Amino acid sequence: AMRLVASGAEREPAWHTYARYCRERGRGLRKQSLRHLEAFVAEAEQWPFGARLSFVAWLCVHLERPGWMRFDLTPYPLTNRLLRPTLVEWANRDPRASLPHRWLGIICSYLGIRAGLMEPPDSVEHHLGRAIELDPTEQPARVRLAELLIGGLEYDAHHLPEAYIGEAENDVREAEEAARLIEGI
Prior knowledge:
This protein has helices spanning 2-9, 16-26, 30-44, 49-63, 76-93, 99-110, 124-134, 139-156, 168-183.
């Protein structure tokens, strides 16, 4: 994944430093790669919205590929300072667009909502639900939200039969919501 993303990033001159980050990170040169990443993020933060969105959308398309959600493609500085702020700005600029909500929900959910990047009401579940609300045919957000709900139910029941650690009323609602989402897949 790192080599393929680096090859794609090399096609756009403004993204060369990100490509260098990917190549060096892929070779295990963490310290050197992070210097390239810091330089890239510092420069990209200054780009106009359209240029930032072009990079973020390109990267998000790669991250949606099965098995490609990689922490090393989206390290904390990139996610916190470029990816998430650009997607939030897009969602605010175009309130009818479902795609920024899909990507905020999916990507941040796989990245483990690093260091509290998203808190209610700006949560993974909010963004996935908003993507579905804006586009009822939205499948990736529907699948990911169902996965998250089922994962929560699984966690609440993982001590059974000795103990149930969830709240039954809440879990019943989440199970019903997951079932409704799954019906639409």
